[in-house]
Specification:
There is one protein chain. By secondary structure, the chain is of the alpha/beta class. The protein folds into two domains: 137 residues, Aspartate Aminotransferase, domain 1, CATH 3.90.1150; 245 residues, Type I PLP-dependent aspartate aminotransferase-like (Major domain) (Aspartate Aminotransferase, domain 2), CATH 3.40.640. It has 14 helices and 17 strands. The strands form five sheets. The chain has a seven-stranded mixed β-sheet with strand order 4-10-9-8-7-5-6, sandwiched between helices. Strands 13-14-17-16 form a four-stranded antiparallel β-sheet, with helices on one face. The protein has a two-stranded antiparallel ribbon with strand order 1-2. Helix 5 links the parallel strand 5 and strand 6. Helix 4 runs parallel beside helix 5 and helix 11 runs parallel beside helix 14. The longest helix is centred in the C-terminal third of the chain and has 22 residues. The two termini are 43 Å apart. Bound molecules: pyridoxal-5'-phosphate. Pyridoxal-5'-phosphate (PLP) binds next to helix 4. Its EC number is 2.8.1.7. Its cofactor is pyridoxal 5'-phosphate. Keywords: Pyridoxal phosphate, Transferase. GO terms for molecular function: cysteine desulfurase activity; pyridoxal phosphate binding.
């Protein structure tokens, strides 16, 4: 990946605490390229209007831009039709939509919902709530030492009682990639649906929802170079057709009477209220940007960086790295001795290196790892080997600092 990519991200061109910024927190949110920022600016300077109703020129431009973004996203993840793409605020909202609409209609007492212990809180709590409401039970596919799951364990956990399997394609903490296609086949054999949390996969891998044969797939724009506030739910058309909306109001209606109303067809019946128009425009621009570079090139670049980071970081004594060895995505989670990760991150920040420290919205996984929190470096297309070197140098400084402090 050439260095001109980095130059397309204006925010990266600044000093933090006297050092050029090294941004290693893309798993929390990605930075935005000039192309996306310009698309937002253009939209607000030229096309802004409400969608699906204006007879005037701006109204139709805004509608074209909004629906055009839906088409781009449908192609990007290889959905069969734009009817299968519901715009949401992000992954969290999309997962909640499935849990609160599909959930109560299809899950009852004694049924089972299957998860893993490494799910993000957003792919855990909606199912806890659904289980409480319906009397269903949550079951967890056990984790191996390195955070992977096995298909044998999945076969044992998913049964004829299972109604929903909900799992991340890629873990935001461990960098583990799950075998979604195989899990989908197991779920389907038992008459269950599979809901895929794609917040960490969509930015980094080529995603094909038809090939994965997942029933629902969720994503967040802000983790893939688009603005905050836009994301999507993909669902197989027949499932979405049968589902009830969860938000009611303007935009999603067909005919409204005093006592009864009817809904628009897919996908609009799920998009009550003025939608996230500018966000969708930004998402469309981000998809163009990613596709110009190529998802395979992005993925290869990140795998190389992750391998390089792993190799360099493993040379630091006292550094514990969590997760599998051969990562397919650029997420490396670690702890430095028993120094609190917040302190590590503070020292790194003083060196201009931004990493995340905390539980990463995965408290059950932290318990499984027997730590309260970790530090995490996550890479994206704009990161370089030089960024890894800066991380390593800063960690060595942190180590000296804390050895001195403690000693
Ligand atoms: C970020 C993330 C989410 C939540 O996404 P939001 O954009 O905050 O809704 C869910 N799952 C995973 C794996 C994530 O990384």
């Amino acid at each position: 990946m050439n260095s001109t990519i980095r130059e397309q991200f204006p925010i990266l061109n600044q000093n933090i605490n006297g050092h050029p910024l090294v941004y290693l927190d893309s798993a929390a949110t990605s930075q935005k390229p000039r192309q996306v920022i310009d698309a937002l600016k253009h939209y607000y300077e030229w096309d802004n209007a409400n969608v699906h109703r204006g007879v005037h020129t701006l109204g139709s431009r805004a509608t074209d831009a909004y629906e055009g973004a839906r088409e781009k996203l449908a192609k990007f993840i290889n959905a069969r039709s734009t009817k299968e793409i519901i715009f949401t605020r992000g992954t969290t909202t999309a997962l909640n939509l499935v849990a609160s609409s599909y959930g109560p209609a299809n899950v009852g007492e004694g049924d089972e919902i299957v998860l893993t212990q490494m799910e993000h809180h957003s792919n855990l709590i909606p199912w806890q709530q659904l289980a409480k409401k319906t009397g269903a039970t949550l079951k967890y596919i056990p984790l191996q030492q390195d955070g992977n799951i096995t298909l044998e364990d999945a076969e044992k956990t998913i049964t004829d009682r299972t109604k929903i399997v909900a799992i991340a394609y890629v873990s935001n903490v461990m960098g583990v990639t799950h075998p979604i296609k195989e899990l989908a086949a197991i779920a389907h054999r038992h008459g269950a649906v599979i809901v895929v949390d794609g917040a960490q996969s969509t930015p980094h891998l080529k995603v094909d929802v038809q090939d994965l044969d997942c029933d629902f797939y969720t994503l967040s724009g802000h983790k893939m170079c688009a603005p905050t506030g836009i994301g999507a739910l993909y669902g197989k058309r027949a499932l979405l057709e049968a589902m009830e909306p969860v938000e009611f109001g303007g935009e999603m209606i067909d005919d409204v009477g005093l006592y009864e109303s009817t809904w628009k067809e897919l996908p609009w019946k799920f998009e009550g209220g003025t939608p996230i128009i500018a966000g969708a425009v930004g998402l469309g621009a981000a998809i163009d940007f990613l596709q110009e570079i190529g998802m395979d090139a992005i993925h290869n670049h990140e795998m190389k960086l992750a391998a390089y980071a792993e190799q360099r970081l493993s040379q630091i004594d006292d550094l514990t790295i969590y997760g599998p060895r051969n990562r397919e995505v650029g997420v490396v989670t670690f702890n430095l001795g028993d120094v609190h990760p917040h302190d590590v991150a503070t020292v790194l920040d003083a060196e201009g290196v931004a990493v995340r420290a905390g539980h990463h919205c995965c408290q059950p996984l932290m318990r499984w790892l027997q730590v309260s929190s970790t530090a995490r470096a996550s890479f994206y297309l704009y990161n370089t080997e030089e960024d890894v070197d800066r991380l390593v140098d800063a960690l060595i400084k942190a180590k000296e600092y804390f050895t001195y402090e403690l000693g």
